[in-house]
Inverse folding.
């Protein structure tokens, strides 16, 4: 196969794989974060037993490998009547996998808000829900931001594990390509460089975002 | 439906394979500690070239997914004429990957030491070498211990990926078991339980360490 | 604005086993200024925080204009959150650490309470906030974030934030202790102005000059007890209790050149 034919054949396939990778990552990050925030708020303001239950959830998910979680969901799910295709299973798996890490990051963020900021709001008589919405959550988000970005980067790398349950993302496409062309080393090298670049780009964007979000808050005198 | 007997029966073959999960993780962190110390030293060295190299090392091995690194090494080593057992390649990859994280843990622990500590040692006339061995390193190593336990927990989970290069550890064994029994739910849940048990033990040990350090 | 009176009788407070306030009695007449002085850990801040129930007291009574603070009846159950908030609306508080909200501008810090508590519209709240900041000489800092303000300016924003709520009583918890010496004056000047306007004020402070010149009464606390309370000149210049004399002596020694 000539290089041009090679490119014409695999180019679009790899591009589509890249699209699926980015999609999986964005989905897992957004929904994992949302679920994590809900978990943290439920632990803070929900009834005690719910808090314990969520603690168990957090420990179980954080204590087991993502790959095994995917196997349980994808291969074990049908036995419980949960029959999912590879892509929905992958998206659900990423969301579940990320949520306890995000929850712990939010928890630390909430803990980092100085008590005085809350007391100042109480002292002028602002109602608790408004304090949570207007003071606590914004400040917690800002102090959690570096860790949130960091974990979002970790998630980009976890997406390659989805290839093992045949989600057609970039890793999966590249492995197929290397099996068809016998160019295993080159294929994996390209993949490595690609992810390296992706992670660098996201970390840089993350640092920009942090600088922007904290521009009023850090001592800038 | 979920069958408890099948669930319990799967533990025996899986526990046997879990020894390899532990082996890969422990050897991996050992390699990581040694390489990580070197990388950290390079990152803190006065030589610009060494610092750049260390930064590149950390950025690459933290930026590339472990699964990709594993396959890369798996296919790379034979090409450059190195024929090693799969187990050695697996431990090597896991160790190299964790060295990047460990170097950062140590760099952070050293950076977190208040500047006044070293200054206090320097003003009483301590040699820089002794400032390192007597003041900086003992404290930095102590404060980094909980993070290192955490890193070990990450490796136990990450070691599930070496199943793809054919190491018969916990995850690979559960795949084989699921294929023969056709009961993936019970088998994979049993595997998850074993991972959880290992990691809870490690986390508990880590917490004890932290409490010991706080005193 | 009608200033409120404060009445404490036999107030006790605990932190776990630690007896932080022991049978404290204190009364502050409307429009008067009382300074609380004493060594650190003597319970001054705790006493102040009990007055707006940031710190729940265990027994005794605290009344503002005769209305019990924090409980439905003496020794009874806690008042509801809504009632507590209504009560706190009347009490302004200024903290040692300013506690401005770092993600809001000076103007928004002041406007937040007006919107959330007084239910004002954004525009009206912003105008009122600008007024309040003008009164603490910060009319030119409306759009500044706290991190861009000096400590003295931050504390004046905090005072404006409290004053905008039109309280009838102001509590100050060591308002100048976190400030560089050269910034203390501007904050004290604002407080002096408030006192002259007839605000009831309870001030925990180490500024003996402020206590001597502005306070109607000075109360000395030690180890959770209110040792003595009287006109500033009696307490500061002719203390009867040896503990007060000792405290003032170390204070003077520390501040002597």
């Amino acid at each position: 196969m000539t290089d041009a034919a090679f490119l014409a054949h695999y180019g679009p396939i790899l591009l589509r794989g890249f699209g699926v990778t980015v999609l999986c990552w964005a989905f897992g990050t957004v929904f994992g974060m949302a679920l994590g925030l809900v978990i943290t708020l439920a632990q803070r303001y929900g009834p005690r037993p719910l808090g314990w239950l969520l603690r168990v959830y957090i420990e179980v998910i954080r204590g087991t490998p993502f790959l095994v979680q995917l196997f349980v969901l994808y291969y074990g799910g049908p036995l419980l009547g949960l029959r999912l295709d590879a892509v929905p299973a992958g998206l659900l798996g990423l969301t579940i996998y990320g949520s306890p890490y995000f929850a712990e990051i939010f928890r630390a963020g909430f803990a980092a808000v100085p008590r005085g900021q809350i007391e100042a709001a109480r002292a002028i008589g602002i109602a608790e829900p408004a304090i949570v919405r207007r003071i606590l959550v914004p400040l917690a988000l800002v102090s959690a931001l570096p860790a949130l970005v960091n974990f979002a980067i970790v998630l980009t790398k976890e997406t390659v594990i989805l290839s093992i349950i045949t989600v057609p993302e970039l890793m999966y496409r590249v492995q197929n390509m290397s099996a068809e062309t016998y160019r295993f080393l080159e294929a994996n090298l390209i993949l490595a460089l690609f992810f390296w670049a992706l992670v660098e780009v996201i970390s840089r964007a993350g640092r920009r975002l942090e600088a922007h979000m904290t521009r009023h808050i850090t001592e800038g005198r | 439906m979920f069958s408890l007997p099948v669930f319990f029966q799967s533990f025996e073959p899986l526990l046997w394979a879990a020894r390899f999960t532990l082996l890969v993780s422990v050897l991996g962190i050992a390699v990581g500690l040694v390489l990580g110390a070197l990388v950290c030293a390079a990152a803190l060295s006065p030589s610009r070239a060494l610092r750049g190299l260390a930064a590149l090392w950390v950025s690459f091995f933290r930026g590339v997914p472990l699964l990709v690194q594993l396959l890369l090494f798996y296919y790379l080593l034979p090409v450059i004429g190195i024929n090693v057992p799969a187990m050695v390649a697996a431990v090597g990859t896991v160790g190299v990957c964790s060295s990047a994280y460990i170097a950062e843990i140590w760099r952070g622990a050293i950076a977190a030491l208040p500047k006044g500590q070293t200054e206090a040692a320097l003003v009483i006339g301590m040699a820089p070498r002794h400032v390192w061995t007597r003041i900086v390193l003992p404290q930095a190593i102590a404060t980094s211990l909980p993070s290192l336990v955490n890193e070990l927990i990450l490796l136990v989970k990450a070691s599930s990926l070496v199943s793809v290069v054919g190491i018969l550890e916990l995850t690979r064994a559960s795949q084989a078991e699921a294929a023969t029994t056709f009961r993936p739910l019970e088998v994979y849940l049993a595997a998850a339980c074993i991972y959880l048990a290992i990691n809870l033990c490690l986390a508990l040990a880590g917490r004890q360490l932290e409490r010991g350090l706080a005193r | 604005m009608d200033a409120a009176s404060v009445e404490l009788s036999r107030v006790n407070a605990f932190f776990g086993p630690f007896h932080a306030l022991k049978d404290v009695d204190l009364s502050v007449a409307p429009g008067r200024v009382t300074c609380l002085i004493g060594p650190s850990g003597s319970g001054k801040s705790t006493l102040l925080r009990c007055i707006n129930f940031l710190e729940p007291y265990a027994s005794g009574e605290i009344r503002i204009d005769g209305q019990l603070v924090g409980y439905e009846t003496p020794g009874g159950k806690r008042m509801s959150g809504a009632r507590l908030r209504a009560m706190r609306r009347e009490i302004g508080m200024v903290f040692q650490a300013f506690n401005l909200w770092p993600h809001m501008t000076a103007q928004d810090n002041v406007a937040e309470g007006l919107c959330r508590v007084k239910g004002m519209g954004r525009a009206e709240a912003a105008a009122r906030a600008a007024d309040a900041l003008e009164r603490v000489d910060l009319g030119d800092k409306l759009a500044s974030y706290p991190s861009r303000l000096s400590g003295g300016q931050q504390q004046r924003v905090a005072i404006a934030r409290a004053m905008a709520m039109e309280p009838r009583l102001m509590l100050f918890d060591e308002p100048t202790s976190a400030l560089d010496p050269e910034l203390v004056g501007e904050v004290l000047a604002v407080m002096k102005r408030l006192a002259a306007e007839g605000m009831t004020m309870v001030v925990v402070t180490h500024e003996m000059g402020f206590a001597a010149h502005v306070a109607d009464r000075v109360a000395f606390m030690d180890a959770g007890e209110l040792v003595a309370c009287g006109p500033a000149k009696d307490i500061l210049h002719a203390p009867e209790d040896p503990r007060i004399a000792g405290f003032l002596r170390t204070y003077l020694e520390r501040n002597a050149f």
Q: What stands out?
A: The two ends of chain B are 51 Å apart (CA to CA). Chain B touches chain A through 43 residues (CB under 8 Å). Residues 10 and 187 of chain B are 6 Å apart (CA to CA).
